[in-house]
Write a structure and sequence with these properties.
By secondary structure, the chain is an alpha/beta fold. Helix content is 49%, strand content 17%. Strand 7 and strand 8 form a beta hairpin. Helix 7 packs antiparallel against helix 8, helix 7 crosses helix 9 and helix 11 packs antiparallel against helix 12. It is globular, with a radius of gyration of 20 Å. The chain starts with a strand and ends with a helix. The structure holds nicotinamide-adenine-dinucleotide and zinc ion.
């Protein structure tokens, strides 16, 4: 797995990742090194990190509670205070060791502390390896509204070490797998087929690599999401609204990010079939791939109404319009599609009947 080197950051894999980290730490004169973990990554991932890193001696560990509901500004305040109490200065480094919550929130804390200190992402979930840790989007939720507060800022480097996944549960692996399927849908029929036919979540190093390459390529072409980067939002406009709706409803068990966007991708594939010429057989293939792996969620009419009311908070909104990314075919996305309002209910009706 070849390293990905760009002008602003690099992505390294496996043992090369630790070697490059050690080289970076010895060449860069950081005043202090902090590592951000949650209770799970402290237990399962920090030991492997410490075994392989030479920069561990004076490192200070900052710990937060795991879970999306802690991805908020209150947690940031605790960390800004913690950094300040431990005399972090502008030459300090924050290493984010964890899933997407840690890399999003840690990236934001680092980007804003004293107007920005360096950070490194070491993703430890499949989702954060193939998606959250690459691309520079950092931030936190505002109440139940996802990722409303944040900045785009690149880490010094991203270290992708699939060995960390050994302790991750199947549901979490499947959540990351949804993002990988998205990469296939927006970029490559061949990759989609490889993923669809894959049977073992624990033997996917080369597929992880392929996803990082796809994500990285798209981000580099359009770092600030003016154009083609929007394709990464396939399944996310409705998927995020579904995720937010379940997050704010105490009677509903919340969905993992990948579970929510799996639903979003079915709904948006239906819209693609109606509006942008996605062939019927490809719609059926997409829907059956996701329902086979992810099952189905039973939506009440109230749920659907709530999801649709949340759509207007989507960050991709501009001038009151919601712009969707749809597909012309598997591997061929179209951006900036406006959807007639009645079609959302139709899409949910299609999902319900699957
Ligand atoms: N910035 C982006 O471009 C981007 C892209 C996609 C998703 N995201 C964000 O990522 C977040 C979701 O990330 P996630 O799915 O990684 O969730 P997460 O960070 O909540 O991690 C999931 C769970 O796994 C635990 N965990 C992490 N690594 C582990 C390991 N190796 N072994 C055992 N347990 C481990 C965590 O403690 C947590 O309980 C969302 O907030 C989403 O908005 C951001
Ligand atoms: Zn996502």
């Amino acid at each position: 797995m070849k390293s990905i080197i760009t002008s602003s950051y690099s992505v390294y894999f496996n043992q090369t990742a630790f070697n490059e980290l050690n080289r970076h730490l010895s060449e860069t004169n950081y005043s202090k090194v902090f590592i951000l973990v949650d209770e799970n990554t402290k237990k399962h991932c920090l030991p492997l990190y410490l075994q392989n890193s030479k920069g561990g001696k004076d490192m200070k560990v900052l710990e937060i509670l795991s879970g999306e509901r802690h991805k908020n500004i209150a947690t940031c305040t605790t960390l800004w205070q913690g950094l300040s109490d431990l005399d972090a200065d502008r030459k300090s480094l924050l290493i984010n060791l964890g899933g997407g919550v840690i890399t999003d929130l840690g990236g934001f804390v680092a980007s804003t502390f004293k107007r920005g200190i360096a950070f490194i992402n070491i993703p430890t979930t499949l989702l954060s390896m193939v998606d959250a840790s690459v691309g520079g989007k950092t931030g936190v939720d505002l109440g139940s509204l996802k990722n409303q507060i944040g900045v785009i800022n690149q880490p010094e480097m991203v270290l992708v070490v699939p060995h960390f996944l050994k302790t991750l549960g199947q549901l979490q692996l499947r959540s990351g797998y949804a993002e990988m399927l998205k990469h296939g849908l927006i970029q490559s029929r061949h990759y989609w087929d490889q993923l669809r036919l894959m049977t073992d979540y624990n033997a996917m190093d080369s597929l992880i690599y392929e996803s990082v390459v796809i994500k990285n390529k798209i981000v580099l072409e359009d770092p600030t999401e003016q154009n083609m980067r929007k394709i990464l939002n396939f399944g996310h406009t409705l998927g995020h609204a579904v995720e937010s709706s379940f997050l704010e409803n105490p009677e509903r068990a919340s969905l993992l990010h990948g579970e929510a966007i799996a639903i979003g991708m079915i709904l948006e594939a239906y819209l693609s079939y109606k509006l942008t010429g996605l062939p019927k057989n490809e719609l059926v293939e997409i829907a059956s791939t996701f329902t086979k792996r992810f099952g189905k969620v039973a939506f009440t009419d109230g749920d659907v109404a709530n999801v649709l009311s949340l759509l207007k908070f989507d960050k991709k909104n501009s001038h009151g319009n919601i712009n969707f990314v749809l597909l012309e075919s598997i591997g061929k996305p179209v951006i900036d599609v406006k959807i007639p309002a009645h079609m959302f209910n139709e899409a949910f009706a299609y999902y319900k009947e699957l």
